[in-house]
Amino acid sequence: MDFSHPRYYNNRELSWLAFNERVLQEAMDKRNPLLERLKFLAIFSSNLDEFFMVRVAGLKDQVKAGFNKPENKAGLTPKEQLKKIAKKTHELVKWQYDMYNRTLLPMLRAEGVHLLAPNEWNDEQTTYLQSYFMKNIFPVLTPMAVDAYRPFPMLLNKSLNLAIVLEDDEEEEDDRKKLAIVQVPSVLSRFIPLPANNDTHMYALLEDVITTFIHTLFKGYNVSSVTQFRITRNADLTIHEEGARDLLKEIEKELKKRKWGAAVRLEMSKKGFDEWVLDYLLDELEIHEKDVYKIDGPIDLTFLFSFYHEVARYKEHLVFQTLIPQPPKDLDDEEDIFEKAKERDLLFHHPYESFEPVIDFISDAADDPHVLAIKQTLYRVSGDSPIIEALKRAAENGKQVTVLVELKARFDEENNVQWAKELEKAGCHVIYGMTHLKTHSKITLIVRQKHGNIERFVHLGTGNYNDATAKVYTDFGFITANEQFGEDATNFFNYLSGYMEKPEFHHLVVAPFDLRQQFLQLIDEEIRYHKQYGDGRIIAKMNSLTDKQLIMKLYEASQAGVQIDLIVRGICCLRPQMKGVSENIRVRSIVGRFLEHSRVYYFHHHGKERVFLSSADWMTRNMDRRIEILFPIFRQQLKERLIEVLHILLSDNVKAREQNEDGEYEYVKRKEDEEEVDSQMMLFQMAYDVADDEE
């Protein structure tokens, strides 16, 4: 049977939009506290920004280059994809603002929190804002006239701007209309608290205040209209690695260009909207009318991230109850992590279990006089990273410290350039990975000499060495003192930093060399076991599934009768439940309080259960264009824990959605007598129960 027909696949971009729609559903979910619902609107907007800056921008580049071949899975040309993306995105943005205006703002008001429009300001508030404007805002503003001598300014990516149409009565009719641009300063808060009593909290939006008093910048002219607008630009870096003598400098150069890429989206406020301004901007930015989004409310709802924190200070009941990551099940209080790892392999499940032991693992190594070397890959780290500080301290303490900093981690390039410089200054040996490949693997090797013996400790993870995201991303971490893992880690780092052929590994499977082949082989083996014993089962958890070869192999396994459960948070190009093709495959997505980020792969193998953790999703880029690691779990108790987690996720009937044969997602229906299972809350409760038992 030919599994390559386009009808068997979801388009990658439309599948991503379906994921972002699930994020939007969380803003609708009445079980979420009000401020959390507002935050989901901000997450939706932030996600959409990145989607336009990278994915939509890439498709537009293909159209400009005259590329009109269909993509290889769902069979849509770049133009067809852009058309469908625009249609779906316009629908989602309308839904987003309907929810904001008609549901969430009225609920905020009922709680005594008001975001006031200018027509709602009373005389006292207007006077206060006028004074505030003159004192705090006016000095920061720069009006930019647009005429023959002053061309249209190059406006920053994602900056909020005002287009002011002015009329000069003294000019002749054809020259009466003038255009000026004023950028809304990003250095100022988007919301301004207004004087109010203790029970009521009122705010005005910065852009509304500037719009109201904008005439003070243009004395002698009549302000005809003020249109709020925002441009999203192509922000994908074009890094010429082959000719770059210094990748650090090449990336710094490209980062400057990112702010000025070609426009891919124009958002304009319906309030004060001016058709003449729209026509002008369409012509100036060279974009199509379908790329214009007329917004019924404040442009760029990512300001709700900071508004969330503002309101949460005095409305604690409107946010999620604080959940404190618990001490890991595999570690007792004050237990030496190195000595424990020598006894047995350790598994951590974040954010249910604390990320602190991972920080301690590196921090203790930095100060341990017996430690000779620390080697680590860094993809994304937090802004004030304790891990970076520990690595710098280790180098200052005379240890051999090698850090692979992935400079091409999208939208973290600037941070990573800065970290690379700081680490080098401290005496660390910093490398930047391999040409044309992103190093996405998460691995740390610590080499120590004790009692004359060399000991190696390895940490491997499904997520980044980022203490901030470890509180909101679900991930697994693994520490072992197994000698063969130690040898594998040593060879892995030597391969990355030096000139050598790809090493043979005992346990690690590494992309872009062997990873896809390993997964294909594991699925083939499951098919063989099923044909012999009839008990084939695969459970795979990941962020996204796009790789066509793996999808075709899963279809083959389904046809053979293997039962397959896929837990895929985001993009899923595979279509389940298609008769004769994928009827034995179920696909579910869990979108909830925490971002499901861990990658776990389970193969039943007639009771010989094989369980793997990985940094890699089943995406073509992870198989072919990234350095990734897949590693097996051998210790039986750890395998059982991972299998239990998978089964809990598969029993979720609160935050889980299932994909049907048409590629649409629907909430899992709960049976009448079935208890509610919110998998994330259940896993947190289990971590609390373990901590209570240990006390």
Automatic annotation (TrEMBL):
Enzyme class label: transferase
Keywords: ATP-binding, Kinase, Magnesium, Metal-binding, Nucleotide-binding, Phosphoprotein, Transferase
Entry GO terms, CC: polyphosphate kinase complex
GO molecular function, one term: metal ion binding
Reactions catalysed according to its record: [phosphate](n) + ATP = [phosphate](n+1) + ADP
Keyword Cell inner membrane annotated: no
Polyphosphate kinase N-terminal domain segment(s): 9-115
Post-translational modification note: An intermediate of this reaction is the autophosphorylated ppk in which a phosphate is covalently linked to a histidine residue through a N-P bond.
Any single GO BP term: polyphosphate biosynthetic process
Domain (Polyphosphate kinase middle) ranges: 124-307
Positions of ATP binding: 47, 473, 569, 597
InterPro entries registered for this protein in UniProt: PP_kinase (IPR003414), PP_kinase_C_1 (IPR041108), PP_kinase_middle (IPR024953), PP_kinase_middle_dom_sf (IPR036830), PPK_C_dom2 (IPR025200), PPK_N_dom (IPR025198), PPK_N_dom_sf (IPR036832)
Keyword Ubl conjugation: no
Residue numbers binding Mg(2+): 380, 410
Residues annotated as domain Polyphosphate kinase C-terminal: 336-501, 508-680
Necessary cofactors: Mg(2+)
EC number(s) from the headed UniProt entry: 2.7.4.1
Residues of the active site: 440
Described function: Catalyzes the reversible transfer of the terminal phosphate of ATP to form a long-chain polyphosphate (polyP).
Family from the record: Belongs to the polyphosphate kinase 1 (PPK1) family.
Alphabetized HAMAP family for the sequence: Polyphosphate_kinase (MF_00347)
Protein name in the entry: Polyphosphate kinase
Organism expressing this protein natively: Anoxybacillus kestanbolensis
Lineage: Bacteria, Bacillati, Bacillota, Bacilli, Bacillales
Gene responsible for this protein: ppk
